[in-house]
């Protein structure tokens, strides 16, 4: 009898769980159906898209009167979240900024994108596009390569009543800054970092690999013009490279050309020493003497250690 009661309870439990599972599935289906409720239609060809293209064509041509024809008398402008109202007259005049300040100014669809026209159920029309604006600023020579996302809201007369733009403003800050004169630090003809570079080269002449490593941080980066800007070595790789040099070269010598400069860069809050040398050695394999001009760049940390070394030289002197 007790066995029968437990069995009955188990059947009741299974029944409840199965019905709960069915109810959960129906609830999920219902919520999914609600989430996918249609609220309008998207077009990839539409007269409003033609109007936005016509607007940008007028901008490219510097035709401010034509620009004005695409906008309502009163327009809401939103740029990177900042909004204000203006008139079509003022907006069209300001649109001449592009052709007055940039040569070879172009506006194209960002590669891989195309505009959408969205007609909502309430009859409102919007267009959104993703643009690439290019050109060269005439005053500063700075090249424009600007990605811009635009949204256009049309009124009942088919005019643009709201114009929204999103873009990275850095290039315009660079253009403004480039038209000013600003100091960016100091230049030293004598400095402890210059002495460090001289000691470094003397250690190289002494063919002391372990001694060379003491001048650099453990995570120092090395590169050269001959090796390519995108190719770097770490400290251990550079030490092995130098050891290979010492195995095949003798009579190593550096003759200073001019004088080194130690520059403190305010913008990056760091010191860099630039130095120029005539570098020479004798190739032990064929007893050939090699001479080449060499420019070195050494960046320092706050502890006076070198964090980056860049060497500028031509391999023609080695292969000839």
TrEMBL record:
<feature type="domain" description="SnoaL-like">
    <location>
        <begin position="197"/>
        <end position="308"/>
    </location>
</feature>
<protein>
    <recommendedName>
        <fullName>SnoaL-like domain-containing protein</fullName>
    </recommendedName>
</protein>
<dbReference type="InterPro" id="IPR032710">
    <property type="entry name" value="NTF2-like_dom_sf"/>
</dbReference>
<dbReference type="Pfam" id="PF12680">
    <property type="entry name" value="SnoaL_2"/>
</dbReference>
<dbReference type="InterPro" id="IPR037401">
    <property type="entry name" value="SnoaL-like"/>
</dbReference>
């Amino acid at each position: 009898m007790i066995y029968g009661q437990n069995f009955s309870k188990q059947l009741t439990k299974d029944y409840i769980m199965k019905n709960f599972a069915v109810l959960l599935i129906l609830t999920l289906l219902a919520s999914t159906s609600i989430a996918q409720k249609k609220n309008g239609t998207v077009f990839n060809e539409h007269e409003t898209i033609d109007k936005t293209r016509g607007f940008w064509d007028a901008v490219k041509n510097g035709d401010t009167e034509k620009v004005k024809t695409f906008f309502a008398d009163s327009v809401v402008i939103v740029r990177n979240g900042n909004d204000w109202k203006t008139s079509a007259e003022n907006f069209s005049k300001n649109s001449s900024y592009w052709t007055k300040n940039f040569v070879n100014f172009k506006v194209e669809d960002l590669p891989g994108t195309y505009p959408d026209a969205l007609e909502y159920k309430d009859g409102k029309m919007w267009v959104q596009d993703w643009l690439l604006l290019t050109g060269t600023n005439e005053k500063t020579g700075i090249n424009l390569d600007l990605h811009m996302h635009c949204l256009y809201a049309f009124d009942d007369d088919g005019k643009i009543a709201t114009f929204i733009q999103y873009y990275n403003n850095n290039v315009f800050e660079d253009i403004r800054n480039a038209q000013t004169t600003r100091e960016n630090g100091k230049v030293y003809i004598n400095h402890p970092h210059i002495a460090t570079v001289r000691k470094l080269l003397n250690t190289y002449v002494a063919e002391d690999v372990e001694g060379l490593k003491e001048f650099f941080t453990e995570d120092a980066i090395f590169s050269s013009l001959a090796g390519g800007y995108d190719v770097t070595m770490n400290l251990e790789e550079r030490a092995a490279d130098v050891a290979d040099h010492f195995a095949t070269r003798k009579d190593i010598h550096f003759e200073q050309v001019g004088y080194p400069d130690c520059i403190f860069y305010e913008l990056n809050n760091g010191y860099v020493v630039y130095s120029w040398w005539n570098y020479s050695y004798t190739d032990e394999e064929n007893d050939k003497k090699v001479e080449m001009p060499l420019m070195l760049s050494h960046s320092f940390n706050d502890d006076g250690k070198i964090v980056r070394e860049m060497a500028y030289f031509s391999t023609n002197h080695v292969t000839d």
